[in-house]
Amino acid sequence: MVEPAAVSMAERRSPAAAFAARFEAASAGGGLRLAEIPFLSQINLRVDPKSPAAERIGTAMGVPLPMEPGTAAGGGDLEVLWLGPDEWLVVGPDGAAPGLVERLAEAAAGEHVSVVDVSAQRTALVVAGERARDVLAHGCVLDLHPRVFGPGRVAQTTLARAGVVLVAGEDGFRLLVRSSFAAYVAEWLLDASVEYVTSPAGEADPA
Fold this sequence. Notes:
Low-confidence stretches: 1-9, 201-207
Protein name: Sarcosine oxidase subunit gamma
């Protein structure tokens, strides 16, 4: 018999965990905030938007599937991102994936629907604050002006040649980036933000 003290579980480590301290330092000035939101539940959903299943799924989630290209819809602790004419990404809190998959599969009721847990594929990086657009503009070809890409807009695009799902919110942006590219994108964000980071009070900028 194995004693309880001898049983250990590997601590989960997010793809950008190593950058937490550097993100915090870059955010100290107030004009920019970098952070990671680790371990979000992410469910890829494929369904005919005109089918009865699509309506049932929206009802089951409490969030109707957004039908306008490049938009997001939210309700409760869930957010649904439009990725294509018949594809959405359902984003929820850590640990919600098993229940979400079951709920969506039940709502599909045997119709041709694909429900896949892709939570491990991506992590979420936050770029917020008044300088967020300036930082992203260094590596993103999209027009990020609020009139064009304001809160509630979603795009699959590239940032510094890395594929991301870019989500605009009220206070900035979230980047859903492949776990294998998280370190690269995090390093790029820190480098792109250097000119916008304010030195802490009492410290002079290097000559």
